[in-house]
């Protein structure tokens, strides 16, 4: 018999220590354990098939080990928060297409393989600065992403609903299915991607990238003339990543791999811990230390070098190649001052992590007309700062982590085909943070490639 109010966690895979997080300080979760649908939603997720296979997760870890060695580059991109309505063929293909286009340009610029990863197929949970939101005289729970509650400012929408975790699972499955179909089925053909990039170049605003675009084109023609095996270039690996914020979801989707007997989060290949939940003694760090996936941790401007070292100790005690990625998000104004002590401390400790720049989250401003936005120039300045810091420290700048979309939205200011504040009213779609649109994303890739080939 279960006593009233007692929580039983049915069905989730058992492994020593996997429930330790329940006794630790746990931030940014909805209060829904007593909800009448919690147990059935949790139980359903616990028995559903995994979204990713542990063998793929291990393969990704090997790819990231190459990045840590300076032999590959990592590109992570996608929405701040995915939405259920945007699980459509058009939206998903536009995002995948944009990431593939960026990857081709970066591959040329870095002359290295690019590991491609979407903030996709699971990026549904959001941390918030406050538990409650007040408008006028009404106060309701904050929107925590569609895996928890609805965006509309009504009591009905804002009450956390555990059944949403099941919807998020099925939407992630549908998204991943289409990503796999695209990237395995010929959509990723290098020649097609090159054709799309020619479309970008037809815009006179992008004429300044003509030289590098021409070089890439000639490189593709050269490969073709040499009889390169384009069959193998029709497919590409593409990995799914999200913030492992909602621990009920992550715990229910954890499985013990039959090959190795080890636990894996099977909600995505790569998961990261956000800036607000990376407390050393908190639930998130403990839980993720116990699963075998490659992990990311966001590091903001208040991070101390000792904290970075302790995070390595907790999350990668074996110093496993590819296990840990630090995603710095300092802000353009801070990066040249705040990143060096972290990079140097990690370098001097002998640990090898992947260093990635998130040039979005430290550069958020509020536009005069009230929209949350970011300036393209600030974003690019942080990217440049990231490369400078690593060059000075003799360490490897391993990749980019960006909030972007494949659509022609107007959420970030600037770019060569300029977006200004007046465009926000019609074309601002993000429910949370502003994303680079299709053109701004490609422009970033060209700028990075240009600086890498100089
Ligand atoms: C995010 O990646 O959307 C996010 C919330 O980032 P951070 O944890 O760095 O603030
Ligand atoms: Mn965000």
UniProtKB/TrEMBL annotation:
Pathway: Metabolic intermediate biosynthesis; chorismate biosynthesis; chorismate from D-erythrose 4-phosphate and phosphoenolpyruvate: step 1/7. Keywords: Amino-acid biosynthesis, Aromatic amino acid biosynthesis, Cadmium, Cobalt, Manganese, Transferase. It is an enzyme of class 2 (transferase). Mn(2+) binds at residues 80, 361, 403, 433. GO terms for biological process: amino acid biosynthetic process; aromatic amino acid family biosynthetic process; chorismate biosynthetic process. PANTHER family: PHOSPHO-2-DEHYDRO-3-DEOXYHEPTONATE ALDOLASE, PHOSPHO-2-DEHYDRO-3-DEOXYHEPTONATE ALDOLASE 1, 2. GO terms for molecular function: 3-deoxy-7-phosphoheptulonate synthase activity. Phosphoenolpyruvate binds at residues 119, 275-276, 298, 329. It catalyses: D-erythrose 4-phosphate + phosphoenolpyruvate + H2O = 7-phospho-2-dehydro-3-deoxy-D-arabino-heptonate + phosphate. This is Phospho-2-dehydro-3-deoxyheptonate aldolase. It comes from the Bacteria. Its cofactor is Mn(2+); Co(2+); Cd(2+). Belongs to the class-II DAHP synthase family. Its EC number is 2.5.1.54. Binds 1 divalent cation per subunit. The enzyme is active with manganese, cobalt or cadmium ions.
